[in-house]
Amino acid sequence: MAAGADAFAWATFPAMPTRRVYCSAAHRDGQLFVLGGCGGGGRALGTAEVLDLQAQRWTTLPPLPTPRAGAAVLTLGKQILVVGGVDAAQSPLASVEVYHVDEGKWEKKAALAQPSMGISAVQRDGVVYALGGMGADTSPQALVRVYEPAKDHWQPLPSMPTPCYGASAFLQGNKIFILGGRQGKLPVTAFEAFDLETRSWTRYPSVPSRRAFAACAMADGVVFSLGGLQQPGPHNFYSRPHFVNTVEMFDPAQGELHVSG
């Protein structure tokens, strides 16, 4: 049963010690880890900080071995895994690093086969799945890679039907749902799912409206696509952007699509 609006409230926490954008965050056991990002000069940072949510106190951690922004970050037990992103020269990274929370130190892990930024990543039972991204040639990638920490090795899986970067990925049961993202500067409307047991892809109906920078979320197995920029004409998508309040919802189990706005 959904909670009423009065069950939620905003709280103000201490500001981050370091100003930055395109940082990556992960939560573990009452702590919020904020890693990398870009500083005022636009260069990637190696800064790592953690906020104790109960004590409301920031602590500076040892810096990332490889400064990066826009990385995929996942919590794996007592470790924080950092994958890809861009370096100080704005080039995609293949490097993968892990922070050992109890030991307070970083360790380099097996790198991706190809440099990539804008990766979408999820984990299931400690196994990491990294989907899509954009390579050094700025082309969107259809790559799907799986990483088992115990083996410290990346293996390829069947590629996504639609290459993209910056997409939203959600784990539901034995499926990874992925939607949104971009190809170059244009938004992707594809909505697809990868079955972890059969290792096969399913295409669902595309997102009805072509919107850039839409927010995507999954709740109770239902996928939502909200807001964004929409260009009604065939010209440059960003020349005269139109801000929209569109909300589109798709229930994969029922095959039902709902649109508002």
TrEMBL record:
The keyword Nuclease does not apply. It holds the Pfam family Kelch_1. One of its GO terms (biological process) is nuclear chromosome segregation. Involved in pinching off the separated nuclei at the cleavage furrow and in cytokinesis. Required for mitotic integrity and maintenance of chromosomal stability. Protects cells against mitotic errors, centrosomal amplification, micronucleus formation and aneuploidy. Plays a key role of midbody function involving abscission of the daughter cells during cytokinesis and appropriate chromosomal and nuclear segregation into the daughter cells. It is found in: Cytoplasm; Midbody. GO terms for cellular component: cellularization cleavage furrow; cytoplasm; intercellular bridge; midbody. Gene3D superfamilies: Kelch-type beta propeller. The keyword Repeat applies. Its main location: cytoplasm. This is Kelch domain-containing protein 8B. SMART domains: Kelch. Keywords: Cell cycle, Cell division, Cytoplasm, Kelch repeat, Repeat.
